[in-house]
Amino acid sequence: MKQVRSKTPYVTSWHCFPPQLQPVKALLKRTFYGFFFSTPAPLMNETNAYVLYFQNSMNLPPDKARLLRQYDNEKKWDLICDQERFQVKNPPHTYIQKLRGYLDPGVTRKKFRRRVQESTKVLRELEISLRTNHIGWVREFLNDENRGLDVLVEYLSFAQCAVMLDFEGLENGEDGFLDKAKSWSRSIEDLHHMSTQPFCNTLVRSARQSVLRYVLKTIKNSRLVSQKDDVHVCIMCLRAIMNYQYGFNMVMSHAHAVNEIALSLNNKNSRTKALVLELLAAVCLVRGGHEIILSAFDNFKEVCKEKQRFERLMDYFRSEEGNIDFMVACMQFINIVVHSVEDMNFRVHLQFEFTKLGLDDYLEKCKHTESDKLSVQIQAYLDNVFDVGGLLEDAETKNAALEKVEELEEHLSHVTEKLLEVENETMMKVADLEKLLLQKDKDLQTIRETYESTNTQVNTLRRMIKEKDAAFQRHFNIEKRLLELEQQGTIRLHKKPDGDIAIEPLGAGSIGLGIPLGDISQLSLGSTAGLIEPGAADPSLPPASEAPPPPPPPPPPPPPLAPVPPPPPPLAPPLPEASPSVILSLGLSAIRIKKPIKTKFRLPVFNWTALKPNQINGTVFNEIDDERVLEELDLERFEELFKTRAQGPVVDLSCTKSKVSQKAANKVTLLDANRSKNLAITLRKANKTTEEICKAIEKFDLKALPVDFVECLMRFLPTEAEVKVLRQYERERRPLDQLAEEDRFMLLFSKIERLTQRMNIITFVGNFADNVNMLTPQLNAIIAASGSVKSSPKLKRMLEIILALGNYMNSSKRGCVYGFKLQSLDLLLDTKSTDRKMTLLHYIALIVKEKYPELANFYNELHFVDKAAAVSLENVLLDVRELGKGMDLIRRECSLHDHSVLKDFVQASDTQLDKLQKDAKAAEEAFNNVVNYFGESLKTTPPSVFFPVFVRFIKAYKDALEENEQRKKQEEAMREKLLAQEAKQHDPKVQAQKKRHQQQELIAELRRRQAKDHRPVYEGKDGTIEDIITGGPDSSLKTPHTGASSSGCPRSRMTVVIHCSAPLKCTLCYVVQTPAQLEHST
C-alpha cells in the first residue's frame, strides 16, 4: 500500500514529546508556525527540560552540551526558538526517490536528460541536509525503510561506470564493452559473500542484471552523469554520513561502500580524487579502518585489472605533477597507509609495495619541489622509511657490540677481582707496617725511659764527684796549714801507735793557729784522706769510710706480647658409659641387639610368630648365632629367587629408609613429631647411615661430615627429657628395630661421650679458616685507617682551617675554643651564607683551592676509612676471643684424649690464631690511640661512628668542589653573555637573529614535550572523520612527524589521538584543505 505523507513542512515529530513537556509543545507549535516570535521564556524547569530534549536530538558533544547548560534562561529560550524556526527543506525520502529515478534504466533518453540536469543540485542539497540537520534526520535517511546509504552507493557506482570504461577505451567495441560492463557490475558486489541482508543481495543482483540487460543505455546515461560533479558530491555526502558514529558504523559494515569510494579515484577530476584520498586516509586512522582500506584497494586491483596493488594510484601521482593539492593528498594517504601499521614486518611489506611501483625514485625527483606542503609530506615519508639493509647491518653491529660488551664485562670482572686482591694485599701491607710502627714506637718509648733514668744517674754521679773534689781540696788546705805551723814551731806532729798523727801545740794554747787544739789533736791523716780537721769538715759530705753509690738499676723488661687467656671452664662430666650393642635389663642377662639387614630387593613376608626378647632366656635361641650363618650363605641368589614381582631397579634402602619407616605401621616414635620430621630432613642431607654419622663425630672426621650439616645437627642435640625417654626404652629391653629411624639415630647420638663438646669442636674446626679469613681484613682495615688518619698532616691542616674559621665566627658570642668534636664536621653544610647559595664547607673548599692548593687532595692520605667504617670492632674482638676459647677447648681435649686430627689442627692453626690475636690487640690499640688523639670518647665513639665522619666529610668536600666549579662556569658564562649583550645592544641584525633563535628554541621545546604524549587510536565517534580531515581543534594530524632519523632505526608504534596535544610533526597525516573543500564545507 502506498504510503501517504503529510504536505506539512518536515519537522521534528511532535508526538515524541514526553507528557511533562506538553505545555512547552503547544508553545513551540505556535512559535514554529510563526504566530508570534517574541514569546516570553517559560519557567526555568520547563526550559531546562526542553534544552535537554533538544540536546539529545542535536547529538551535541559533551563540551558543547556543558556550554549550553551554562547559559541563562533567556538565552536558552532564544536558542530553542531559533532552532524551531529552522525548517527542514525536504524529508529524506524526497532525495531518495529522486536518486532512484536517476537509476531507473527504463526511462527514455530524453526524459533522463531532463531529470539529470538537476542531479548535482539534488546531491548538494542532500549533502547540506546530512551535514546540518539534526541526528534524527540522518537516522531516518539511513533507516531500514529508506535505505539511503544503499541508494547513494548505487548512484555513485552508476555515476562512475562510464568513467571506468572510458579509461579502458572500450566504448567502441561492443564485445569488450559488454565484458567490461560485466566486470564493473561485479565491483558493486560484496566481497564477503556471506552477507545477511536480503535487501542488499537483491539490490546487488538487480544492479548487475540491469547493467547486463541495458548495457549500452546505462553506459550512455552514466557518461552523461560523469560529466558533472555528481561523483564528487556523492563522496561529500558519504563523508557527512561518516561524520556520525551511527553512519560511520553503517558505512564500515556496508558490503561495498568503501569499495565504491576507492573506485572513485578513477574520476577525471583531480579535486575529486584528492577528496577521496583524504576520506580514505581518515578512515585508515580509525580503529579497524586500515584493514578495510587495504581490502578496498584489493577490490580496486581486481576490478581495474591492476598487476600490482596501488598501481593506478601511482600512475595518477606521477601524471598530476601540476596539481599540488592532489599530490599532497596522495602523499598524505601513502604516509598513513604505510606508517600507521603497528606490525613492523607488515609496514616493511607495504613500503616495499610502493618501492616496486617506483615511489622511491619519484620522491627523489620531487624532493626539491617548491611546495612546502608536498615537501613536508615527502620528507615525512623518507624519514620514516625502514631501511631493512641498514637494520640488518645495525643488528649485526649490535650483536658484535653485545659480544664486545660481554667480553669487556668479563674483563672488567677480572680486573675488579684483581683490584680487590691488590687492595686487600695493600691493606695487609699497610696494616703490617702500622703494627711495626706501633712496635717501634713502644721500643722507642722504652729506650727513652731508659735514657732518662741513666741520665739522672749520671747527673747524680757528677754532683757527687764535684762534692768529693771540694772535700779533698779542703783537706789539702788543712794539711798544708798544719805543715806550715809545724815549720814555724807552733805545733809538733808525731805518729801514734795506731797509725794516726797527733798534733801537739808547743806554745801556750792554740793562739794564732785558727784551729782548736782539741780538734787538732783529733786529726788523723789516712793514706788517702790527708790531714782533716774534724771541726772544719763540710757537713754535707759523706764520711770518708762511706761506700760508693750503687750502680743504676737495669731497664724494666718489655711488656708481654699477649695476655694469657683465662683457663677454659671445666668439661662436663661424661655420660654414663654403655655399650651401644648391649641393653641392660633388671634381673635379666644382657641381650645383644641385632643390626637390621639390608636387602637389594623386596622379599615376601614369612608369617611366623616371634618370641619376645624376654622369652628367649634359657632357650636354644640364646645359644645359636644366626648372623654367622648369613655370612656363609649366597644371599644374592636367595634374593633373586624369592624377590617379589613387578619390582623396579635396585632400591637404596639407606635413601628410602625414612619413607619406609613412615609407611610401616609398627614403628615406634618417641620424639616430637615436628622435631622428628625436621631431623629426618637433616639426615637425608648427609646421605649416610646413623652408624657412619656417629662414628665420624667420635673421630672428628670433617671429611665425612660437612660443616653445614654439623651446624644443622647442632639443633638436634638431645634434651634431658629425650635422653630419659630413650633410656627408659632401653631399660625395657624393647627391640631397636621397632624404633623409627630418627629415634634410633637419636638413641645412638645421645650415647656419644661429651657430645656437646665434640659438636662444638667439629664446628669450630670446620669454621676456623673462614673465621680467620673474615676477621683478618677487618682488623687490617681498622689498623690501616687508624694509622692513616692519625698520621695525615694535610688532615691536621684542614682541621686547623676549620678551627680558625669557627673561632672567628664564634669568638664574639661564645669565645674561642681549642678544639672541637669530629661530629662538628657534619655541621659545615648547615652553616650557609647570607644569600643561601654557599655553605661554610663550600667556602673552605674555595679557600683551600686558592690559598692552600697543596691541601686540595687531603683525602688521598686517608686510606681505607670507608672499609673501617663498616667494621664493628667490638664484635670482631669478641669473635677473636671466642676463637681463643675454642682453641683452648681443643687443647684440653687433646690433653685428655689422644686425637691425631685435633693435634694436627692445633699445630697448623696455632700460628694463625696467635697472629690474629696480635692483630686484634694492635687494632684495638691503634683505634684507641687515634680516638684519644682526636679527643673523642672511647665509650661513645666506636669505629662505626668515628670513621663515617671522615667518609661523609670527604664526600661533602668533593661535592662542594664540583659545585664550586659549576658555579664558576655559570658566572663566567653569565659574564660573557652580559658583555656580548652590551656589545651588540645597538645591532639590529643581532636583535633579529636573537628573536629567531628564541623562536627556534621554543619550537624545539614544544617538540620535546609533545613527543612524549601517548597517542591512542581514533574511535569512530561523532565528528571524528571531520576532525581528522579538516584538522579541527581536536585533530592531532595537522603536520607529519619528521622527528628521529629512520634510516635503519625502528621506531615505536605510531598511533593517533583525538583529545591531546599532537606532535608538531606527525608521521601519519598532513591534512590540507583544498579550495574545493573550502567551497563545499560551508
Automatic annotation (TrEMBL):
Q: Ranges for the GBD/FH3 domain?
A: 39-469
Q: Which residues form a coiled coil?
A: 398-425, 954-1009
- List, alphabetically, the InterPro entries matched: ARM-like (IPR011989), ARM-type_fold (IPR016024), FH2_Formin (IPR015425), FH2_Formin_sf (IPR042201), FH3_dom (IPR010472), FMNL_animal (IPR043592), GBD/FH3_dom (IPR014768), GTPase-bd (IPR010473)
Q: Locations of Polar residues compositional bias?
A: 1036-1049
Q: Which Pfam families match?
A: Drf_FH3, Drf_GBD, FH2
GO MF, any single term: actin filament binding
Which PANTHER family does this chain map to? FORMIN-LIKE PROTEIN, FORMIN-LIKE PROTEIN 3
Can you say what this protein is called? Uncharacterized protein
Q: Which organism is it from?
A: Anabas testudineus (Climbing perch)
